Amino acid sequence: MTTQVLFAAKPERWIEYQAPLARALKEVGIDANLATDIPASDVEYIVYAPNSPVQDFSIFPKLKAVLNLWAGVETIAPNPTLKVPLARMVDHGLTQGMKEWVTGHVLRHHLGMDAHIINPDRNWVPNAPPLAEQRPIAMLGLGELGAVCAQTLASLGFPVSGWSRNQKNIDGVNCFSGNSGLQDALSGAEIVVLLLPNTPATENVLNASSLGLLAKGAAIINPGRGPLIDDDALLEALESGQVGHATLDVFRTEPLPRGHPFWTHPNVTVTPHIASETRTWTASQCVAENVRRGEAGEPFLHLVDRSVGY
Ligand code: NAP
Q: Who lines ligand 1 at CB under 6 A?
C-alpha cells in the first residue's frame, strides 16, 4: 500500500526536502506518495512547518500524525483542529549547531573577547580572564538542546546549574526543577542561557525579579524564544548594569523591527534566529522513522505533550 505523505511548508523548503525525504522514506521501507498537493481526503501524514498555509487539520479524515520540521511548536501545539499525534523535530544537526553557538557566545563573554576585538584606542590592558571554574552559568531548559549545552559547558570547567520542569540528573550539572528551583538555578549566575520552549508557563521567566537574582553585570544568552524575556525589564537591567550584555537570537517579533531598541543598544548583540538550524538529511531521517513507526503500529518518537505546550 502506498502511504500518502503531504509536505506542507514554504515552497523553498520543498526544493530542499523533496529528494532527501523521498530517499529517507525509501530507506525505512515506506512506499510513499510524497507530494505537496495530495487530496485532503487521502492524506495520512503531514510533514509540517508551522508557517505553512495548512492551519485547519479537520479537513484530513485519514490523518495519522503531524511531523513538525521545527523543534519549537508554540504556534501549532494550541491548534484546536489538530486531533492526531504531533511530533517535533529532534535532529543531530540542530543539537550540534546549538552546542557550537552556545559555547561560542558563552566563551565570548567569559573571555571578554570584545575588549580586544573592539579596541579603537589600542589600549594595552593585560587583565587575564578568570578560569571557567570561577564563572557560574545557569542553563534554563534541560531538554534535547539544553542538556547537551549544559554538559558541554560543564566539561569546559564551568559550574553549571540547570533548570527544568521535571527533576533531571545530568552528570556534572547541578539540576533544579519546578518554580522553587528557578531561584536556586539563577542565584549568583554570571551567564544565563535560555533553552526553554515558549509556553504560557515560561513566558517572561526572565523578568525584573529573576534578573535581580543574577550576579551584577551578568550576560544573558537567549537562543530559546523571544517571549521568555520581559524586554522592558531586560532594558532596565542593562541600564542599571545588573545585566552587562545580552546576546539575543530570538525575539517577540521576527524579523526584529528596525526601530527596536535592541538593535542600537551598545550592550545587546542581535543575531537573526540562526543559533541552530535543522539539517535536511538528518531531519528527513527523523521524519521517515516516525512514518515507519506509524505504519508498523509502534509509538512515535518526540511526541509533543500538548497539555503543557511542548
Ligand atoms: P525540549 O527537549 O522540549 O526541552 C525543553 C526543556 O524546557 C525541558 O528541559 C523542559 O523541562 C523545560 N521546560 C519546559 N517548560 C518548563 C517550565 N515551565 N519550567 C521549567 N522548565 C521547563 O526542547 P529542545 O529541543 O531542547 O528546544 C528548546 C527550545 O529551543 C525550543 O522549544 C525552541 O524554542 C528553541 N530552539 C531555537 C532554535 C534557534 O535557532 N534559535 C533552534 C532550535 C530550537 P522537562 O525536561 O522537565 O520537560
A: 71-72, 94, 141-146, 163-166, 195-199, 201-202, 223-225, 249-250, 273, 275-276, 310
Q: Do 174 and 221 have their domain in common?
A: yes
Shared-domain flag, residues 167 and 285:
no
Residue 11 has what pLDDT? 97
* Arithmetic mean of pLDDT, 25-41: 98
User: Percent of the chain, pLDDT > 70?
Assistant: 100
Domain that holds residue 123: 92-270
Average pLDDT, the chain: 97
pLDDT, tens only, 55-97:
999 999 999 999 999 999 999 999 999 999 999 999 999 999 9
Confidence of residue 153 (pLDDT cuts 50, 70, 90): very high
Residues noted as catalytic:
225, 273
Q: How many domains in the chain?
A: 2
> Is 307 among the domain residues?
no
Residue 72 CA to ligand 1 center (angstroms) comes to 8
With cell 553557538, the residue in question is 101
